[in-house]
Design goal:
By secondary structure, this protein is α/β, with parallel strands linked by helices. α1 packs across α3, α12 (246-254) packs parallel to α17 (421-437) and α14 packs parallel to α15 (363-370). The chain has 20 helices and 23 strands. The longest helix has 19 residues, at 327-345. It is globular. The relative contact order is 0.09. The strands form 4 sheets. Strands 16, 17, 18, 19, 20, 21, 22 and 23 form an 8-stranded antiparallel beta sheet that branches. Strands 1-5-4-2-3-6 form a 6-stranded mixed beta sheet, with helices on both faces.
Amino acid sequence: MDYRKEYEKWLASPALSDDERAELKAIAGDEKEIENRFYGPLEFGTAGLRGTMHVGLHNMNRHVIAWATQGFADVISAEGAQAKERGVAICMDCRNHSYEFAKTAASVMAANGIKVRIFDELRPTPELSFAVREYHCQAGINVTASHNPKDYNGYKVYWEDGAQLPPHHADAIAKRLAEIDIFDGPKTMDFDAGVKSGMITVFGAECDKRFLEEVMAMVNDYDSVKKVADTFKVVYTPFHGCGHKLVPEALRRLGIKHLICEPEQMKINGDFPTVVSPNPENPEGFYLAVDLAKKEGASFIIGTDPDSDRVGIMVRRDDGEFQVLTGNQTGVLLLDYLIGAMKRAGKLPKDAAALKTIVTTEMARKVAESNGLDCYDTFTGFKFMAEKMGQLESAGKNTVIFSYEESYGYMIGHYVRDKDAVTASLLITEMAAWYATQGMTLYDALLALFKKYGWYGEKTHNLVMPGLDGLEKMAKLMADLRANPPAEIGGVKVVGRRDYKDGTETDIATGKVSPIELKGSNVLRYALDDGTVILVRPSGTEPKIKVYILTQGKDAQERDERIAKYSAWVETLKR
């Protein structure tokens, strides 16, 4: 694509507002910036779109939203009149322009004869997944950039099962978008006219009620909460986002008397003024919550990201300081707890199973299988977990009780088909209360699990490759690893290699190549002689290569030494 020609096209378009045109004129002398904005459209994938909010083809703005929605509308329309009548549910997070973008999407859908249910204000991502299923919609849209910094926004798309879009539908939309002119292609109608005509329905409170009923049905042990309620204290922060109502409400219904919400971060604000990045994976964002927890004598801290699908926690140690738990560690704690709690409550299915991704700790498999559960791997992304859940249950093979990935996402129950920080926050709190009745913190509980199941450890490295040549660098690194696979990593022999792109596994000693169940994803996996596993994959939403180290030692020291050794190898990949 001729980026300069595309820039001139946008400048000349009558579709631009005066402010939008002024923004483009302001970069007239910055050739690199023009190239970055117009060298090509944002790539539409199974996660939809994500990018920075600027005027331009490669950015998030109302024109790109309308264009993407027209492509999505065409795919829905191809399903027939019934699909159009079932319509779409649309939701948004707290980010700047999210409500504007959501209304734009609703207007395009309605103009295409597709019924719309749009939330009256921001809602958690899991509630959008729930709404698609609960109201029997054909599809769903969520305007959110999840945990990304304030400059970003995104466009997540869902299908009728409540999961993010399957690959063949994403491909169909991408193909259609290549045929649609960004300005002349989208059909649109006035939002208020759509509401008046009945094509657009604004809703919210009723869905909240139904969703929370399902969430609270997941509680296993009100009694333990009641036993410690007078002294048990929890600090919560939504990082200025969508968890601000439903998470506190769920915890109060659980019986938490001393729920202390961090006041500054309870304020909805798309600029996220108190944090550099509103991501519960980044412990530095918890500084206000930590100060509050120390002041109030709280047991632990919960933080949910801006669209409330990810949850991170910090737990008090014996020395009074707060310890960050990784997504892997929280997931292992939850899995082990849920198995025990469901057994005690008589709710554990006899065919119970757990799901994890290929980059999630192997400790989860150890916990599951040690307790008689099956454990299955999927590719990264809850759409794949939702698909696997459906396959297992349709075949009458397993009932999935818990699914998770290392990046702070947990899916519990069957009313949502995406990661769900509302339900996870509820059950993490129930778990913490139960351990409190045993005289233990969650930090104590984690140490007990290491002693019981083994000293597992994980570390994820992000090799950021921004800019126009970032994609080329990422592709080159993956190509080089395939062309010249390492014989050893950190001085330890590679004994097995999997390429999930073509679905093959190579035994290094014999050279035998065998097919594996999972294929079609650009991921490389190396099994080392000491039991360590290292995986390398490009991020699907950000310009970076992710490298995962999954290891185990005879004790904490050996585990940590191995992580350090293999982390040094990861650094060599940056060159």
